[in-house]
Amino acid sequence: MRQWLIFIYLGCVAWGTSFLWIKVALQELGPITLVGWRFLFGLVTVALSVVILKHRIVFRGLRFWLPAGLGVLGGAIPIVLISWAEQSIDSGLAGVLNSTMPIWTMLIAHFALHDDRMTPGRLTGLVTGFVGIYILLDPRGSATHDLVGQLAVVAAAIFYATATVLQHRHLSGVHPLQSSLPAMLGATVVLAITAAIVEGPLSLPKEPMTWLACAWMGIIGMGLAVQAWYHLINHWGATRTSLVTYVFPVAAVALGVVILDERLTWELVVGGVLIIGGIALVNRKAEDRVSEPVTG
To answer: What is the pLDDT of residues 220-257, one digit of tens each?
Structure first.
């Protein structure tokens, strides 16, 4: 039950709302600066968790530098890509395209992990998901959204998938705070340097809604969420944890339509249904397993 409550928190509260908040913050901040503030709030949240729980963090060796690198690979880079893409595509579409992450996780895990192999059912799910992506990208050119922006979100999903598999392979069983703090620290440092070079010095938001968006994404959607994510990877494994992407596309699309007045097109509905159906087939074997902690 604890794992499922964490799962619902990630899908509905932490990440399902992030695509809306990105749109809000982009009204004032550049995409890299936006993500920099998000990770700074996340870093402070994780640091407070370490202090409150009195957990001892190792600041050397593989247990520090690998999570720090994964924080850049599976955090800073994909979120910057999504934020950049949302300058030209709807938040709901970004949420649906980002939900392809389990499909990429399955592909990468097949070659990298001994306990996540390709099956006929998963292959069917892979093809179904790719048909959904094809409909959303609409290579015939009739789509109303920027193709480059959509491809950027797909690339972000691939970065997420790669980092998830590496986390499962090399850091399974490591305490979530030991993974979270180096990840937040590494990503925050890289983002601060990159934002200063590309977008100028890190600027303070002026609008209250921008502060709320950055704080929400940083505290709820990053600092607490990354600890919950690593906890699930330890207990459920890489592919099954990615089931969270069943949930947040629905939240992203609903919030985009209701609050941002985004269009609910047939491509979005049909493509989204096919992608979620593909995810269901990809994860069918994982759902049937006994939920035992993964320790190796």
So the answer is: 999 998 888 888 877 877 667 777 877 778 888 888 88
Tokens encoding 242: 């990615």
Angle subtended by helix axes 120-137 and 266-282, to nearest 10: 160
What is the spatial distance between Cα 91 and Cα 34, in angstroms, rounded to a whole number? 15
Whether 104 is in a domain gets the answer yes
User: Whole-prediction pTM value?
Assistant: 0.84
Alpha carbon separation from 9 to 4, 177, 213 (Å, rounded): 9, 18, 18
Number of domains in the chain: 1
Calculate the CA 191 to chain-centre distance: 17
- The tokens 């209701």 sit on which residue? 258
Which position has the higher pLDDT, 118 or 52? Answer: 52
Q: CA–CA separation, 166 vs 160, rounded Å?
A: 10
The domain in which residue 152 lies consists of 2-288
- 45: tokens are 């949240």
In terms of Cβ atoms closer than 10 Å to its own Cβ (0-12, 13-18, 19+), residue 160 is buried
**16 SS3 class:** coil
